[in-house]
Amino acid sequence: xxxxxxxxxxxxxxxxxxxxxxxxxxxxxxxxxxxxxxxxxxxxxxxxxxxxxxxxxxxxxxxxxxxxxxxxxxxxxxxxxxxxxxxxxxxxxxxxxxxxxxxx
Length: 104
Hints:
Layout: H1 6-14, E1 20-22, E2 25-31, H2 35-52, E3 57-61, E4 64-69, H3 79-93, E5 101-102
Antiparallel strand pairs: 1-2, 2-4, 2-5, 3-4
Helix pairs in contact: 2-3
């Protein structure tokens, strides 16, 4: 899998204002109303990850979810990560799983 270029990453981030870059990762922090809402969101993303065969690094603490995307086999960001971020945003924007606001 080929790494995305800096231009491709910058263009993707321009359309993903709540995502940021942390080294070789795309990162998004979310805060939900409660634990069930956070877990429901994670379940939706898990189904997406299986469909795309691309799985996020993430953590959950009560009503917070931290998502970190990177293609480990490529050693950086690829088109798969950029697509995954866009698809996750679509889940959030659709209002699925009690759409959260951004944390921080």
